[in-house]
From TrEMBL:
Cellular compartments per GO CC: mitochondrial matrix
Name this protein carries in UniProt: Mitochondrial glycoprotein
Stretches that traverse the bilayer: none
InterPro entries noted in UniProt: MAM33, MAM33_sf
Pfam families to which the protein is assigned, alphabetical: MAM33 (PF02330)
Length: 253
C-alpha cells in the first residue's frame, strides 16, 4: 500500500502546486489593481500620498518573486513510480516454485482472475480467486514478508452436470469455509433459488467433515499460504502494468 500512498501524495502535491500558482496569480492581479489605483490618485493631485504607491509596488514585487515555479507533471510522476516499482519488485519466494502439486495455475496479463485446476478421480477441482474480490487489504510485515493477511477464493468440485461450490478464506494457517452450495454446472437459474444454509449454523461435526472433504482434495493451509502470496504478487504486477499504460497515455501527444 505504501507505493499507492506515495503516488497519491505526489499527485496531491501537483494539484497543490497548481492551486498555489492560481492563488498567486490572483494576488498578482489584486496587487496590480492596487498599484494602478495608487498611480491614478497621484495623477489627480494626491501627490502627498507616496507611501500608498510605495506599498502597492512593494506588494507587487513580493507576489511576483514568491510565486511557486511549477516544474513537475503527472507524466513525469507516473514515470518515476514505474521506475521505482520495477526497481524494487521481487517475486515472493512462496510463489516462485508454482502451486502445490498437482495443481496447475492459469492466468493472463490484464485479467484479475487466477485459476488453479487438478483432477481428483472423476472430479474436476477448480480454485478461483480474483484480485478485485478480496477482503480489505492488510499487509503482513511481521516477519519481513509481504503478503495479504487473508485471501478469499472459491473451490468448485465438478462431477457430472453439477458442482459443489465452496466459498473459502485462508490466512495461511488454516482454511475457513464460509458457504457451501450445490449448483448446476451452468450456475443457478436465478438469484432467488436456495443456495444452501448459513455454514456457521451447521452442526460442528458436519462443518468438520466438509473441511476434511476439501483437505482430501488438496485444499490445505499450504495451498492457502501459496494463494496469499500469489494474489499479492498478481496485484503488484498488474499495478506496474497499469502505471506504465497510464503514463504512456498521459505522455502521448
Amino acid at each position: 500500500m505504501a507505493q499507492r500512498q506515495r503516488l497519491m501524495r505526489g499527485i496531491a502535491g501537483l494539484l497543490s502546486q497548481q492551486q498555489s500558482q492560481q492563488a498567486s496569480c490572483s494576488q498578482l492581479l489584486m496587487a496590480s489593481a492596487a498599484a494602478a489605483s495608487a498611480s491614478a490618485s497621484v495623477a489627480t493631485g494626491l501627490s502627498h500620498q507616496p507611501a500608498l504607491l510605495l506599498r502597492a509596488g512593494s506588494a507587487l514585487r513580493s507576489v511576483t518573486t514568491s510565486a511557486p515555479t511549477f516544474n513537475g507533471s503527472l507524466s513525469s510522476l507516473l514515470r518515476e513510480e514505474v521506475d521505482y516499482e520495477k526497481k524494487n519488485y521481487e517475486r515472493p519466494a512462496q510463489v516462485t516454485g508454482g502451486p502445490p502439486a498437482p495443481f496447475k495455475l492459469t492466468e493472463a496479463p490484464g485479467d484479475t482472475l487466477l485459476t488453479l485446476t487438478r483432477a481428483f478421480g472423476s472430479e474436476e477441482i477448480n480454485v478461483d480467486l480474483h484480485v478485485n474480490s478480496q477482503p480489505t487489504p492488510e499487509f503482513d510485515g511481521e516477519d519481513g514478508d509481504e503478503g495479504i493477511n487473508v485471501v478469499a477464493f472459491n473451490v468448485s468440485v465438478a462431477k457430472g452436470d453439477r458442482v459443489l461450490l465452496f466459498e473459502c478464506e485462508s490466512d495461511g494457517n488454516s482454511v475457513n469455509i464460509n458457504h457451501v452450495s450445490l449448483e448446476p454446472k451452468e450456475g443457478l437459474a436465478s438469484e432467488s433459488m436456495y443456495s444452501g444454509p448459513v455454514f456457521d449454523e451447521l452442526d460442528d461435526n458436519l462443518q468438520g467433515q466438509f473441511a476434511k472433504y476439501l483437505e482430501e482434495r488438496g485444499i490445505t493451509a499450504e495451498l492457502g499460504e501459496y494463494l496469499r502470496f500469489l494474489i499479492y504478487d498478481k496485484e503488484q504486477r498488474e499495478y506496474q502494468n497499469w502505471l506504465s499504460e497510464v503514463e504512456k497515455f498521459v505522455g502521448s501527444k
